[in-house]
Amino acid sequence: MVNGVNEVEGGGDGASSSGSDTVTAARARMLKRQRIDFSDDGSQAHQTTALPGRRCFVTVGATAGFRSLLEEVSTAGFLQGLAAHGYTILDVQCGPDHAAFQSRVAALSDEDRHGVSVRSFGYTGEMNAYILDCRGEENVRPAGCVISHGGTGTIGEVLGVGAPLIVVANPTLMDNHQLELAESLEERGLAVHGHIGTLVSAIDRIAERITQGTLDALPPYSPPPFPVAAADRVTLFDWMVLTCYPDQLAAQTHLSNLGMAEADFANEQQQLPVAGNGNGPALAVNNQENNGMLQLD
């Protein structure tokens, strides 16, 4: 008996118990994840080791703090939401608020944690390893998710790996520019836009995407070739500028148009006949007027 509930014991003729047939939700999920191999005659040949639980990686970036996100992912309600979908590990990159996060986690009871192991650190040089741990791979690990602030660097890494992604905008940064990015990523189907106060619903939506997209059974990850092909060199930062900063795009387009206009004007001047060469009417040159034409704005 474990925690007052009878364990189901595997036997050659089937499972049996000494009382109630009820098992814990966590045990049921574990049994569901196990793969049973059968011989040609239909009898059980052997049982492989169960896949590990899902992993969630939360990152707030290396510069600014995001305490409201850290506070939510260290609540009993959020951990319960993770456990309901088979998550067993929560890794949190806390930035400058690591000590405050540790204090919150230390105050949680075992019951509050719902079987989820919570690990944290301030900064790391191994971001890609934590992201890869959230990428599903057939017969290796189920898909988890990355919960990220709206930093383009982190988002680019997650999208490149193919791990499920929740983007939570940090409203304290640069005119809330991360909100535009999060909304645009969701519109394009690249990520779930998560909101402070309702992150459990974002985890529910990630679970739907994992099921619909068979993200638990991806092939092994292969890093992209280097150098990157010319057709694929548009970075996430370039895409963000083009989609989320229309004023900047308009300014860049205006400058580009001015440059082309100046080049066209210079070409036209070169094609006009020179004064006094007998090939056509003379070109009157007025330096003051010509300079004024070139000062485009």
UniProtKB/TrEMBL annotation:
It comes from Chaetomidium leptoderma. InterPro entries: Glyco_trans_28_C, UDP-GlcNAc_transferase. Belongs to the glycosyltransferase 28 family. It comes from the Eukaryota. Residues 56-209 form the Glycosyl transferase family 28 C-terminal domain. Residues 285-297 have a biased composition (Polar residues). GO terms for cellular component: UDP-N-acetylglucosamine transferase complex. Heterodimer with ALG14 to form a functional enzyme. The keyword ATP-binding does not apply. This is UDP-N-acetylglucosamine transferase subunit ALG13. It catalyses: an N-acetyl-alpha-D-glucosaminyl-diphospho-di-trans,poly-cis-dolichol + UDP-N-acetyl-alpha-D-glucosamine = an N,N'-diacetylchitobiosyl-diphospho-di-trans,poly-cis-dolichol + UDP + H(+). Its EC number is 2.4.1.141. PANTHER family: UDP-N-ACETYLGLUCOSAMINE TRANSFERASE SUBUNIT ALG13 (PTHR47043:SF1). One of its GO terms (biological process) is dolichol-linked oligosaccharide biosynthetic process. It is found in: Endoplasmic reticulum. It is an enzyme of class 2 (transferase). GO terms for molecular function: N-acetylglucosaminyldiphosphodolichol N-acetylglucosaminyltransferase activity. Keywords: Endoplasmic reticulum, Glycosyltransferase, Transferase. Residues 1-23, 276-297 are annotated as: Disordered. Involved in protein N-glycosylation. Essential for the second step of the dolichol-linked oligosaccharide pathway.
